[in-house]
Amino acid sequence: MGLEVKNIVAGYTREVPILNGVNLTAQDGRVTVILGPNGAGKSTLLKTIYGYLTPQEGEVLHDGKRIQDLKPNQMLGEGIAYLLQGHSVFPRMTVEENLELGGWIMRGDQKRMQTALDFVYARFPRLREKRSFLAGILSGGEQRMLEIARLTMTGPRTILLDEPSVGLMPSLVDEVYEEISKLKDERYTILMVDQNVRKSMSIADYVYALALGENRYEGPREEMEKKLDDIVREWI
Amino acid sequence: MDFSLLLDPYILTEVLVQGFVRGAMYALMAAGLSLIFGIMGVKNFGHGELFMLGAYAMFFVTVVLGWPWPVGIAVAAVALFIFGMLLERTLIDTLRRKAGRDWVLDAFILTIGILVVLQNLALILFGTSRRGVTSLIDGVLVWGPVIVSYERLMILGVASLVGLSLWAFIRFSSLGKAIRAASQNPEAAQTLGIDIRLIYTVTFGIGAALAGLAGGLLISIYPAHPTVGFEPVIKSLACVILGGLGNVPGAILAALLLGVIEAYSAFFMSAGWQNVITAGLVVLILIVRPSGLFSSSKVERA
Predict the structure, then answer these.
(1) Contact, B253 vs B20, CB < 8 A?
(2) I need a surface site. Which of A185, B215, B220, B261 has the fewest CB within 10 A?
(3) Residue B51 near residue B228 (C-beta atoms within 8 A)
(4) Span A99-134, pLDDT tens digits
(5) Is the Cβ of A100 closer than 8 Å to some Cβ of chain B?
(6) Angular region, A196: left φ>0, alpha ψ -120 to 50, beta rest
(7) CATH number for domain A3-235, candidates 3.40.50.300, 3.50.50.60, 1.10.150.120, 3.40.120.10
(8) Residue boundaries of the structural domains of chain A
(9) How far apart are CA B280 and CA B6, in angstroms?
């Protein structure tokens, strides 16, 4: 089932839609990547899916359920997590408090919270070591790990990633993609917007290229890799 | 000025206690103002009117109904908590959703509107006369040369208890953590399922409850009348600035400091000077440390 976007028209004002009828499907348990030049509407599409923007037309379905009328704070309850572009840790709270907030929607269930914490710490031993540190003093790479770990606290089915490697130094970029491919192995449905074309292609199953708020190209990774030079040339 | 009076333990404690009582009032007001500013970015100029409503609620419960003072204080706090949430949801929330990006500046005008409306409503409904009580508790504590009234001890005790509870709530409760998260990164808080609208409403309610509680607690010193909130709001805004905008513990420390400084200046100079000293202190601090006395180096909300 996964996540389906049907003929979405949306923007920040009614008069100037950024997305002019985008169609897209993120298959269950697959990595779907959205490419496109600046201004193509990639981040706007994620924001619309997540309820920050209300589409003027079209539908968003998650596992067959219409979700375009829901608010951003209802999405995690629907099993959709969202990694925002840029830093999104709470800098003046500890690593553990950040993770606990990742489990905010299951706050009444101490047992489930503890299980989720143990699971995350087992996977990110460095976060366990630094659990009582303020998140703001972690390195950029560690903060990104914390953000990714926080996404998985409630065990969502679908994860939206907005530019997961932007602003990180090159040596950390590989680490981030490694984590994302681990998420892929764990069968999360992933929809990712990325400027880092080659890296994101390397873990993608299916690729969409947007231009000016419309679908331009799409296809399985192998097919798109052949066309890649042409696609990128168009952006310049 | 006769500084030898400072050596007299009776005068020293008298002035110090007076300063702390004042400081406690400023602290309750400033904590709410600072909380609201830190989380919503709104400077609530109508905060003094919430103090005023708390004082009227206290008067109504303890004098008109004749119920004991702890009930009065509880009613003042709870009534203002509800009133604050209603105010936020009906006016401020509506403005935020309609006005878009520049709503914080509009909210500033809105809170001045709230001030004017509430003051004049109080004038129409209750008139200009002062409604207070001479004291909630009689008697004094004598301890060697030190004499302190039970009333003042009660005020300090209740204020400290409320301050500690607020701290524990923000620090340890899950709602408190969500409030902190929302102040540090509202967008990220939303992606974790935290309802920002609810956080804003509850935060404003807490701020209003603190103001209402202060109004009720200090009724024997500041009897209820339509403009009783003016001095507390001006002074506590000064404390919020002195403590560093949005820094709640800083605002509380600044409030206690200001209370004591004012009490001493009122004792050694004429009473009118204390306002000059407050204003002078704000100007001085803004020149020397523009981000406040107790701010950490980063100013995150411009």
Answers:
(1) no
(2) A185
(3) yes
(4) 999 999 999 899 999 999 999 999 999 999 999 999
(5) yes
(6) beta
(7) 3.40.50.300
(8) 3-235
(9) 23
Strands, E assignment, B4-144: 140-143
Angstrom distance (rounded) from CA A158 to CA B96: 31
pTM (2 d.p.): 0.89
Distance from CA of B174 to the nearest CA of A (A): 7
* Total number of domains in chain B: 1
Q: Does A107 touch chain B (CB under 8 A)?
A: yes
With tokens 């003016």, the residue in question is B230
Question: Cβ contact (<8 Å) for B188 and A88?
Answer: yes
Any residues with CB less than 8 A from the CB of B290 and at least 6 apart, and which?
none
Chain A residues in contact with B181 by the CB 8 A cut-off are: 90, 93, 101
Verify whether the Cβ–Cβ distance A101 to B194 is below 8 Å: yes
Domain that holds residue B189: 3-301
* Nearest alpha-carbon partner for A205 in A182, A226, A184: A184
